[in-house]
Amino acid sequence: MPMPVQTAGMTVVRAHATPADAVIGNIPAGDYFSILATGAGNVPAVLENGSIHTIYVAANSYQIFPFRVVRVNSTNLTATATYANLYSNAT
Q1: What pLDDT, on a 0 to 100 scale, did the predictor assign at position 27?
Q2: CB of 57 within 8 A of CB of 27?
Q3: Band of the pLDDT at 75, cuts 50, 70, 90?
Q4: 60-67 contact pairs (CB < 8 A, 24+)
Q5: How far, rounded to the nearest angstrom, does the alpha carbon of residue 16 sit from its chain's CA centroid?
């Protein structure tokens, strides 16, 4: 399991594994969703309610979104990136 990483008052507790279209690939949603992109493209993020929100990311960028993501779909994924759920440290 990767070590937690502090990011602007948040902790990365769960990183998304290989993108998949099956529900079996779901992980617990975080408070935020982060994308570290090396190649530009689309990231189809599956939200807690089952809807898919496609996010366009630029190459060589790091972005944080206020989305509760449970999975990154492999279908329509065109970005080269790594993904993680961030959890607020606020109590």
Answers
A1: 82
A2: no
A3: very high
A4: 61/35, 61/36, 61/37, 62/34, 62/35, 62/36, 62/37, 63/34, 63/35, 63/37, 64/7, 64/8, 64/10, 64/32, 64/33, 64/34, 65/32, 65/33, 65/34, 65/35, 66/31, 66/32, 67/32, 67/33
A5: 6
